[in-house]
Structures are given as C-alpha cells and as structure tokens.
Amino acid sequence: MDILSNYILVDIETTGFSFYKDEIVELCAVKVINNKIHSNFSTLIKPINKIPYNVIKIHGISNEMVKNCETIDFVLPNFINFIEDNILVAHNANFDLSFLQRDIFINLNKIFTPLYVDTVSLAHRVLNLEHYNLKSIASYYNVDTKGHHRGLKDCLILYECFENMNKFGKTKFYKFDFKINREKIDSSLLKVQTKLF
C-alpha cells in the first residue's frame, strides 16, 4: 500500500472507560496534508455528569475547567465539518470512535462510519515491542510525551509515531461500524428516542 499522506488524527478524553455511561470531555483532531500538520481542532466539553476524581488524576481535566464549556451537541457539528470525509487515525481507535459514533447518532441523528487506521494494529505489524500503548511507541521513536493524556498533545505525539510507522507502507484502512446496544446506554445520555441500528 502507498504511504498515507492526508488524514485526520483524533483523540478524546472522557469521564471514564464505559461506552455505555461515560462522556467525552475533550475532543481533539489534527489535520495532516501531504504528511505535514495543517490545522487542528481542540475543545473541552461540559458533560452531563461530574468527572470522577480518579479520572481527573489521569487527564487533569477538572469539573471547574469544563463548567462553562459547550456541551457535546454544540461541538459535534464543528467537529464533523473539520474532519469532512478524511481518513481518521487513532490509537486504540475502537474506544475513540465508538464514543463519537454514539454521540453523533444521539445528538445529530447521523450514522458515523468513517474509514480509519488503528495505530495499535499498525504498530503490531511494524514494531516488536513489549507494550503497544502510545507512550511505549513514542519512547521507541524518541518522541516527547510530556503532557500525555491530553487530547491535542496525544494527537501530536501520535502524528510523530504514525509518520514513522507510515513509512513502512503497511497501513490498513477499516470502516468503523460499531453496533450499539441502545438498552445499555445510560438514559441520561440519550437525547433522541430513535432505536440505534
């Protein structure tokens, strides 16, 4: 496969790890054109529920920081306009894209099934490491990880890592189509009553 030259790096931070009850509190994307950073999209988001203390310790996003921010329904249209129909690149893509697919359907009533690259899978194909988290891959390529676990910084770290792995020409695209079980989603997150898929 040819080296991927145009794509969008995506990263989210959330209130927790459960797709069914947790929320996005930071949404970031970096647009790459001809393998060079072109522009970025980065915003904090006010969730419906409070961010737990143990999660704040991970990404550093406090309830105070998001209390005056826009909610996800106002943020998503701008995000969709920014990414357009580009291929998305994310680390452990199922996590980020499943939250986005859920929220885009709930708030915009649109089906979100982008083409994407999962850099975890790519790293397994081109590297021989003990661990394949973003910090381990960044360490392998001597990429500075200070500020790791914030959306925009993680996108910039991922850019450096992906560009190095991208040179192997082993990048594979997938179409994201996560099947949502509506009954398991916390009712406080639902803003439309349409049955999901």
Could you give a quick summary of the protein structure above?
The protein has 197 residues and is an alpha/beta fold.
Question: What do you see in this structure?
Answer:
- The protein has helices at 53-59, 63-66, 72-83, 93-108, 119-126, 134-140, 151-166; strands at residues 7-14, 24-33, 36-44, 88-90, 115-118, 174-175.
- It has one domain (7-186): Nucleotidyltransferase, domain 5, CATH 3.30.420.
- With 197 residues, it is α/β, with parallel strands linked by helices.
- Mean pLDDT is 92; it is low at 193-197.
Summarize the SSE layout with pairings:
Layout: E1 7-14, E2 24-33, E3 36-44, H1 53-59, H2 63-66, H3 72-83, E4 88-90, H4 93-108, E5 115-118, H5 119-126, H6 134-140, H7 151-166, E6 174-175
Parallel strand pairs: 1-4, 4-5
Antiparallel strand pairs: 1-2, 2-3, 5-6
Helix pairs in contact: 3-4
